[in-house]
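Supplementary Methods, section 5.1.

A reviewer requested that the exact input to the structure prediction be made available. We therefore reproduce it here, unchanged from the version used in the analyses.
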Amino acid sequence: MTRIHPPSPLLVSLLLTFCFAVPGFAAAKKAKPKPAAPAKSAKADKKSKADRGRDSKTAAKKSSAKETRAERAAANKKERAAQREERGRGGKISKRERLAQARREEAARRAEAARRAEAARRAEIARQAAIARQRAFDKAIRDEVQANIQRDDATGEDPEVRRVAVQALGYHAASVVVMNPRTGQVYTIVNQEWGVRRGFKPCSTIKLISGLAGVVEGVIDPMIENAAFNSNRMNLTDALAYSHNGYFQQVGRRVGFDRLSSYARQFGYGERTGINHVNEYAGRVPLFKNDVGMLRMSSHGDDFEVTPLQLATLASVFGNGGTLVTPHLPRTPQENVKFKTIVRRQLNIPQEALRRMLPGMIGAVNYGTGRKAQDSQQTIAGKTGTCIGAHGVWDGSFTSYAPVEDPQLAIAVIGRGPDARRGFPASVAGQIYRALAYRFAKRNGKSPLPLTPEMLAPRPKVDPTALADTESQEDSDGDDAANATTGEANGTARPTADGLRRVLMPVQTRPTGVTTLPSARPSSAPAAPSSQGEQRPQTDVRPRRVLTNTP
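The structure derived from this sequence is encoded token-by-token as follows.
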């Protein structure tokens, strides 16, 4: 039997020591911190920066390569498109490309047709809307006139004259004044709100004042004008008859603002006529105009405002030989029987100057812009005017008197809006003259001015179809007048067929600052004839003294 000896105490102690020491050693080894990485040297850091630089250059090269490929692709695309277009012009083109091109062209045609159809539809809608607005405006302004006529105070008016005037006016937007040019007796004022208390732009009727000022100031010399006339030149008579804008623009520019405005004030513009109606409007005269503004002021009446009653007194001055009378309406039969003429003032204008204007006023009715006022039983002298007035609305006027040999009636008509154009004011006056001819036509009286057969029956010396810049040509006094005279305002003449550069006869240069009217024509001789007329540069635009008192 084998005998087992117990282990020795030394061996047991070694085993126990090993068992407890090994796990502790492993835990201590695991918890031991890692040693810090040694610091990089300067050489290693420099190498790292070089590596980063190479990486960025590589990325930039790759990006540049992508952009280059994109540009190359776009260029190739354009080149292929150009090649296809070139083949479409005359070279060979495949069937597929022809079909694609045809589809594109058809789509473009359809799109263009649709666009045009839409534009036409919108234009038609806008046109119909504009027509509706215009008709509404026409009706409103005509209804206003009819309401004004109903409110007129006809006490003391001549019933026959009023009936004829109302009938001639009809359902239209206008005002009519009929008076005696010698005595100032008012026969009727139809639409008194407009006739006495409303101001309108005078348009081309201002040419009566511009022309008269030109004659008195020696700007227009009748003797030289008639002697030097040729087919390329227009005289005062035809300029008035056809209402030529350029002619009177040159006249007004040479007369000057101060002188021209003083003549307008002599005729009563800017002041009340003194009629026995309440709340009479005095009108308006511009306070200042430079050389450019003088053009349209002389031909279109820019910045003037006149009443139909003031237009009637203007015509009366030409009919009675230079006397500005006060219009008066006799309210009772006794006042009518004992009517007394009230003279406001005797104008400081030579009789010869008034006579010089008369053929042009007769020519306007006989063959010019006022032909609708003609009457075979009597000779009528008048002047038309049509232009754009306040707020962009048409203003049309006609002032006249008849018979010229023995003036008995002075008629002024001012229309607005739809009834200002195409000679409607002259037509109304003509109807009144013809209806009352049996009563007011020639009565074998004595004319205040000595008349000759040539004055009573003027003949045109120019071809009206060859004229430009006239009232009758565009029924507006020529809105292009400013454009037509821009060259003149800038000191350069336009070589046109209308004779704008050769309108005036020899011009006498006068100081523009003079503010008193002459008692007669200047005695100094006019300048020598010139085919191109006098040119004055636009630099003289300094302010001038304005006449504020009535001469």
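Confidence is low (pLDDT under 50) at residues 226-232, 476-551. These observations are discussed further in the main text.
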